[in-house]
Design brief:
With 482 residues, the chain is α/β, with parallel strands linked by helices. It contains 18 helices and 10 strands. Bound molecules: iron/sulfur cluster.
Length: 482
């Protein structure tokens, strides 16, 4: 198996070996359980004096995974989904809100003093941006030696300064730089070379585990391949265990044994790399894979379908399944017959109504824009109040608005309900409009939060069996934030 970059990727056999080992044998090196990291807004003394409730931003919201010795677990998702915060929190670079992290059997959040220092030696990080993660006032020799100085290493050397210098030279050579570059400053290096310096620095204390936080995303594609190969070689040579954070799935495929997909603070699918790429289960994973350019010639011409919409704010995550506001497979109620694409449009309209993006004013504007061509009785003079000649005229306008808003066919009872809803909206009755749409079209995806099943390839989605004992299974729960 080659990586399609320069053919030096680890073989499938090696990856399979690691995966089988990871899936079935031994204790995990890293065990993350129900990790939460919230940030709080409006939590100042003044806010408390004024009686304002603190508002939480759920960057990481109940994440579980394990990484076995020698394994690489990929953590992927779009920007802002909580991947980097997860990596930094489990290393104690950020304080966790809740949850447990065990490293080699020890509870990381309970460590202090010498034990914490030991953890910091064994678990490190390579940051995304080789431009900002290196102090421009230090030479690369000083940068690589700094962790050694902080930890008083090498502890048993007679001449520590000399031993550190030798170690720095060794590391620079090992990551593909030269010991003669020791006295240069970061600005004298290219992006790829700076990332090599970052890797040398992370290796200085001979760690067992590294969080690789988007280590190649700031680099040119040709340089990416070199750094990925270097990381793979170093893993083999030093028996390293990686948590590889990335938004680029093509990068993940060639370095990781298993992949966990994150969306808005939660893991929505995880599984062995090849299986997840060949048979993705969660609609979000499928959409991510769809948007990756393909290398093979017969697929190169296919249209790439970008994932619609943006990741919602973690301040107000959607109720139930957090992907439901963008999911192309969102599940309609069992008693409503409606094509999938049309249902997606209905859900988008609901979303716009509930968020206020579609309100009476906007509906009237739209109706006027499209109605003026044919003449209609909509009152667009901006006055509060009902549409003139309401009744038949309103219904006619609402029907026309329905046609404007829907690209796909909507017919029968579904059309009747949507038209009546739009009539309420045109009449300034937003609450009625919202509840009318909700009554007919509410999905299980918004009522219940799906969770991961047991097993090697779980997906948190109502399209698959949900555990009968669900940790967040409260059917009455619409949302944690409503
Ligand atoms: S639970 Fe529903 S909205 Fe969420 S991914 Fe599955 S089908 Fe889509």
């Amino acid at each position: 198996m080659t990586d399609g970059r320069d053919g030096r990727d680890r073989s499938s056999r090696e990856r399979r070996g690691a995966t089988e080992r990871a899936g079935t044998e031994g204790d995990a090196l890293l065990d993350v359980e129900d990790l939460h990291k919230y940030y709080f807004e409006r939590d100042s003394l003044v806010d408390r004096l004024l009686g304002r409730d603190a508002r939480s931003v759920k960057a990481v919201d109940g994440v579980d995974f394990r990484v076995h010795p020698g394994e690489t677990l990929g953590l992927v998702g779009e920007s802002g989904c909580g991947k980097s915060t997860t990596g930094e929190t489990l290393l104690r670079l950020r304080e966790a809100t809740d949850g447990k992290v065990r490293f080699d059997g020890e509870s990381v959040f309970d460590l202090s003093g010498a034990e914490l220092m030991e953890f910091r030696k064994r678990a490190g990080i390579v940051f995304q941006d080789p431009y900002s993660s290196l102090d421009p006032r230090m030479t690369v020799g000083e940068l690589v030696a700094e962790p050694l100085a902080v930890h008083d290493e090498p502890a048993d050397a007679e001449n520590r300064t000399e031993a550190r210098r030798e170690r720095v030279d060794e590391l620079l050579e090992r990551v593909g730089l030269s010991a003669t570059q020791r006295d240069r400053y970061p600005h004298e290096f290219s992006g790829g070379q700076r990332q090599r310096v970052g890797i040398a620095r992370a290796l200085a204390l001979e760690p067992d585990f590294l969080v690789l936080d988007e280590p190649v995303s700031a680099l040119d594609v040709s340089v990416q391949a070199q750094i990925l190969n270097l990381l793979a070689d170093l893993q083999q040579e030093f028996g390293l265990t990686y948590l590889f954070i990335a938004h680029d799935l093509s990068v993940v495929r060639h370095l990781c044994d298993r992949v966990a997909v994150m969306y808005l603070g939660e893991i929505v699918e995880s599984g062995p790399t090849e299986e997840l790429f060949e048979e993705p289960r969660h609609p979000y994973t499928r959409a991510l894979l769809e948007s990756v350019p393909r290398a093979s010639t017969d697929e190169r011409d296919r249209e790439i379908e970008p994932l619609a919409g943006d990741v919602p704010s973690p301040r107000h995550p959607p109720s139930g399944c957090r992907f439901r506001t963008r999911c192309p497979a969102v599940i309609p109620p069992s008693d409503v017959e409606i094509p999938q694409e049309t249902y997606r449009e209905v859900m988008d309209l609901r979303e716009r109504l509930e968020s206020g993006a579609m309100n009476t004013e906007r509906a009237r504007e739209l109706a006027a824009e499209h109605g003026n061509e044919r003449g209609n009785g909509v009152n667009t003079n901006g006055e509060e109040g009902r549409v003139e000649d309401r009744g038949d005229a309103t219904t006619e306008t609402a029907a026309r608005l329905c046609t404007v808003l829907f690209e796909n066919d909507i017919g029968g009872e579904n059309r009747a309900v949507v038209t009546e809803t739009l009539g309420h909206l045109l009449d300034g009755e937003r609450d009625e409009a919202v509840s009318m749409l909700r009554d007919r079209f509410e999905s299980v995806c918004e009522r219940q939060r799906p969770v991961l099943q047991a097993g090697p390839h779980p997906a948190a989605c109502h399209l698959y069996d949900q555990p009968t004992e669900r940790p967040n299974a409260n059917p009455a729960e619409r949302t944690a934030d409503d």
